[in-house]
Amino acid sequence: MSDAPAPTPKRKKVSLTEKRRSARSFALQAVYQWQIAGQPLTEIDAQFRVDNDMKDTDVQMFSELLHGVAKSKSELDKAFEPYLDRAVKDLDPIELAVLRIGTYELMQRVEVPYRVAINESVELAKIFGATESHKYVNGVLDKLAQRVRYAEIRARKG
Question: In this protein, which residues make up the domain named NusB/RsmB/TIM44 (predicted)?
Fold first, then answer.
């Protein structure tokens, strides 16, 4: 019998893309909680950091999305509202949270390519939303991107 300690398994390195995807997922859940329960943001932020394993998460991005969406709620809603087929108040709470996060990224995080912001929002809607909500989210954010990311889209098309 050997007294040598068992080798520790090597931890897989997590990419920045995966860390950001995790941040968006946690942010969606936190924004949803804020929308439904109306808890103070600092409580929700702290609760998520304590209750979840966020070692593979871009925690700074999580916090920025949560606080940024809440702070800019009215501006975000006004930005995507023209592309809705119903009133904002009639949106499913998950769709609303996804649209707010996607809109925030399109308007405030210009370093994130518009296609990434839309695709990540669509993926969140597929995971957390109703069966066809990802198509709705895609349509709304695509129309919004045509307005708020016009130069980027035009440059991409050449």
Answer: 22-145
Whether residue 3 lies inside any domain: the answer is no
Angle subtended by helix axes 73-80 and 133-148, to nearest 10: 100
Spatial distance between the Cα atoms of 36 and 150, rounded to a whole number of angstroms: 33
Is 158 a residue whose pLDDT tops 80?
Answer: no
Distance of CA 56 to the CA centre of its chain: 16
Total structural domains within the chain = 1
| Nearest-5° Cα angle at 27, 42 to 127 | 150
CATH number at 23 reads 1.10.940.10
Alpha helices (H) in the chain, listed in sequence order:
16-37, 41-51, 59-71, 73-80, 93-108, 114-128, 133-148, 150-157
